[in-house]
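DM from R.C. (forwarded with permission)

"hey, sorry to bug you on a friday — could you get me a structure for this? deadline for the figure draft is monday and I only need the backbone to look sensible"
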Amino acid sequence: MTAVTDAPSTRPAASPEYVSLPGAYLIAFLSRASGMGMIAMIGPYLLDRGVPVRFIGVVMVFSALGSAASGLVAGRVVDRFGPWRAMVGGLLTALAGVAVFVSVPWWPLLAPAYLITTGGSAASGNAVRTTIGLHAPPHRRER
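My reply, with the result:
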């Protein structure tokens, strides 16, 4: 029988898969704030721009579908490139989506911009959970 210890993961700090927990939490906060923050403001923002109410509902549905799909893709990205690259990629994607969202002049283009933002935000979630799992003691990791 193997002894169980409360020691953190044995991955070396120089490893490309290694991410410090404070760094992971900061990136998670920024990427989730950009994606989740848009949910609170998208309705009033779109209404002020003259967007029909039923289009706002369609945007929200596609956003949820985009988040689910990006979560599946992000799992593969984390496995292939490591959590750090996946987190940074998700954050940059979410911020790019916000930049596109606030700069598009024609409202039908807002749906793809919103989809990009929420997709990037959701993608970083898998990487954050992987990072937390890497830092957990072996007996506390989910199986």
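R.C.: lifesaver. The radius of gyration is 18 Å.
me: no worries. The longest helix spans residues 53-81.
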